[in-house]
Amino acid sequence: MVIWEIPDMQSTPQVMGLGGLVRRLFTYLRPYRGPCVLLLLTMVVTQAYSTAFPLSLKFIIDDAITRRNLKLLLMILAGLAAGAVLVSAASIGRDYLYARLGISVLNDLRVKMFSHLQRLSMNFYAHTRGADVTARFSTDLISIENALVLGLPAAAISLLNVVVSLVVLFTLEWRLALLSILGLPLCFVGPHVIGPRATAASYKMKEELARLTGAVQENVNAQPEVKAFGLQDEVQAGFKGLVSTLFGIGRRANFLSYLTERTPNITLLLFTLIIIGSGALLTYHGFLSVGALVAFNGLFLGLSQSVSGITSVLPHLVQAAAGMQRIEELLIERPQVSDAPGAAELPRPAEAIEFEGVSFGYSPERRDLQNVSLKIPYGSKVAFVGPSGSGKSTMLNMIMRFYDPAEGTVRFDGRDLRQVTQDSLRSHIGIVFQESFLFNTTIQENIRQGRIEASDQEIEQAARGADIHDFIQGLPQGYDTSAGERGGRFSGGQRQRIAIARALLRDPAILVLDEATSALDPATEEAINQTLKQVAGGRTVISVTHRLGPITDADCIFVLQSGQVVEAGSHEELLRLGGVYEGLWQKQSGFTISKEGDHAEVEASRLRSIPLLSTIEDQLLSDLTKDFVTERFVADRTVVEQGEPGDKFYIIVRGVVTVTGRDDSGPEKMFAVLQDGDYFGEIALLMDVPRTATVRTRTESLFLTLSRGSFSRMLDRDPRLREKLEEESMARLRSHAPTPTDEGSADSAEN
Q: Which residues is 702 bridged to in the sheet?
């Protein structure tokens, strides 16, 4: 199991400043000009009252109270009361407009991001963590929501108050007002210096939060393995390491954000004392009336609060700027595969699929396909087979146009796929994956995903074709039964039949099967294969599989190795060639598996193909077959761990495993992917040496295992054989580097 590692922090990309954030937000507010104008009017009403209230103190003191003018006093008080009613109504209206605009802009952003994700190509999802995308819809949007609902409104009102207050202050006392203008810019020196650092630190914190979210998601999915292997303490330690990293980054980000608010307040506090002192001296010497002093101080205190209001929302704006930058990074991603200008609709294929000189690589440094040319006539049944990593799935990616060739052309009926629309291409293809995804909705809606406009009768017909209708009808809620998350309420075979129904609903000209039955038990696999044969009539059927038994009746089998088609022909023709295919067939032969898939046996002739066992006499080898034990592992389980003692030899009867390892300081590396018929751990039968690699199941896997004790008892019957095998094993250990052998055994990588 891979425990989460604390990643090295990369250099932070240039993030947008507060000015960039405001410009972006105004861009998203542009469609809502009407509500924005109403919002501005409510702000003007509120600001007018906020300015008039302290200014009225001058007239109350100097004109009404000092001159004993009761009528004027009552008029001023009545005006203030009427203004209070008006401003209260305006404030409620402003709150409603805030709420409406905030959720409208956020929903626009959500839809824009989600729609953009649908347009992105498969290469984006291959190199992007799901948790990182999810974080943009959660923590990053929350930051923007805070800026829209709390930050911008408060900053706008405060800024309006600053402008209006300064104008009125000049009418009261120009000298104090001039001093205010000279001093206020000093309040923003701190945010100007600290703001960019705070934004960069906040960006780092959001990146780390996304990593933490990914760790939680991984742990939730890995709970069976965590509990089965007692890894609770280990995963907790890894999580605490991530939390510790987040603490350091978050502490710096939050402290810098708070400093952007604190430094102006400190400056403003000192400056307020200067203004009050200067005003008091002017009044003392008779240059300013008492009423004017009270009004000036009231206005200036309101101005000071407005400046504080602006600075108090800076942390929200800093967080929002980092969040907006991450959202912009998503929105500027461009699909690697897109429709060409003027791309045509692809008619229903009726002739052939052709590859002409196709080369492709997922990364610049390697080629996953090299100069592949072949033809698949319409209505034929073909299969792509070969060792893991040979390019089988990449061929399907070319046919589905998930990727475009780096060189060469893929054609349907003579039309270059780059010159037709993706939607029209895929409308003619029905695909069943190895792990078909079911949405967390009803069975009916899951099948309807194949063709959204399909009627209920068409859905039922597709389910009958997939031989799943009777099962669905037997459920309490029938077609309205929820599939649960990822289809978790159904077995693997039931999920695959629903997926087949979904593919059939498209009435596809081409049916693609991507390891569609490899994760099922033998009985279910056989039943599904029979269903697939029944529905294949009149369609082109393209299978990708590492299991050869189900495709022996294919019209043509293309054998790939290192990204090239090295053999092609029928099952019988390829066996007569005695090449790669024949080797794969022999590797998967010699096993007997129960219908339930929980027990397996191996023939002595199959064991003889394993180098370590090849020289053992027939009777001993036949007796040894009885000592093999069946072991079954679900997907994503660790079979052997690097560094632990090795005491078993493993043969993979069914399934796919990965072989990985690491040295003392380097990251974990992939050594090999092994599948049906491969084996690992030969040396463990003879020597007590630690495992030098970790083996994990990629799919549910069935193994035959032989313990060192059982093998040793067999060797005790022939001491000379033991001596010979030990000498050969020592020679192999000395000569083999720690990488898998070419024969598909991970012995040298894992022992």
A: 632, 654
Distance CA 667, CA 601 (A): 38
Does residue 656 lie in a domain region? yes
Residue that is last in its domain, among 549, 576, 603: 576
Could you give the CA distance from residue 501 to residue 464 in angstroms, rounded to a whole number? Answer: 8
From 576, 600, 620, give the residue that closes a domain.
576
**Separation between Cα atoms, residue 706 and residue 685, nearest integer Å:** 8
181 and 154 share one domain: yes
Residue 420 lies in a domain: yes
pLDDT, residue 490, reads 84
Packed helices 492-504 and 522-535: angle between N→C axes, nearest 10 degrees = 10
What pLDDT score does 482 carry?
A: 87
Residue 637, helix vs strand vs coil: coil
User: Do 125 and 85 sit in the same domain of this protein?
Assistant: yes
Structure tokens at 357: 């000189």
Q: What range defines the domain where residue 258 resides?
A: 18-331
Q: Which pLDDT score is estimated for 742?
A: 33
Contact 440, 387 (CB under 8 A): no
- Same structural domain for residues 601 and 567? no
CB 206 within 8 A of CB 200: no
* pLDDT at residue number 748: 40
First to last CA, the chain: 18
Residue partners of 663: CB distance under 8 A and separation at least 6 = none
User: What are 219's two structure tokens?
Assistant: 């742990």
Q: Amino acid identity of 35?
A: P
Residue 2 lies inside a defined structural domain of this protein: no
| Whole-number Å distance between alpha carbons of 314 and 320 | 10
Which amino acid belongs to residue 190?
A: G
The confidence score (pLDDT) of residue 111 equals 86
Contact 86, 94 (CB under 8 A): no
Indicate which CATH number applies to the domain containing 510. 3.40.50.300
In this predicted structure, what is the pLDDT of residue 8?
35
Q: What is the reported pLDDT for 747?
A: 42
pLDDT computed for residue 275 by the predictor: 67
Instruction: Note the pLDDT of residue 575.
Output: 94
Q: Strands across the sheet with 648-654, in order?
A: 629-633, 701-707, 648-654, 679-680
554 and 618 within one domain: no
Convert 416-443 into a string of H (helix), E (strand) and C (coil): EHHHECHHHHHCCEEEECCCCCCCCCEH
Q: How many CB atoms lie within 10 A of CB 470?
A: 9
35 by Cβ neighbours in 10 Å (0-12 / 13-18 / 19+) ranks as middle
* Residues 683, 686, 692, 696, Cα dihedral to 10°: 70
Q: How far apart are CA 50 and CA 53, in angstroms?
A: 6
pLDDT tens per residue, range 40-69: 888 778 777 777 777 677 677 777 777 787
- 460, with CB counted inside 10 A (0-12, 13-18, 19+), is middle
Tell me which residue has tokens 């002192």.
Answer: 277
> CA dist 438 to 202, 219, 502, 503, 599, Å?
37, 22, 10, 12, 30
Compute φ and ψ for 648, nearest 5 degrees.
-140, 150
| C-alpha pair distances (Å), 746 with each of 52, 640, 692, 739 | 84, 12, 10, 7
Size of the chain in residues: 751
Residue 367 and residue 393 in contact, taking contact as beta carbons nearer than 8 Å: no
C-alpha to C-alpha distances, 150 to 100, 110, 242, 320, nearest whole angstrom: 13, 19, 31, 11
* Closest among 441, 255, 422 to 345, alpha carbons compared: 422
Q: Which of 242, 304, 321 is nearest to 18 (CA)?
A: 321
The list of the chain residues with pLDDT below 50 reads 1-12, 225, 228-229, 737-751
Number of domains in the chain: 3
Cβ-Cβ contacts under 8 Å for 11 (sequence gap 6 or more): none
Q: Rg of the chain over CA atoms, in angstroms? A: 36
Residue 167 to residue 23: CA distance in whole angstroms: 27
Same domain, 127 and 80: yes
Q: How many CA atoms lie within 13 A of 659 on its CB side?
A: 27
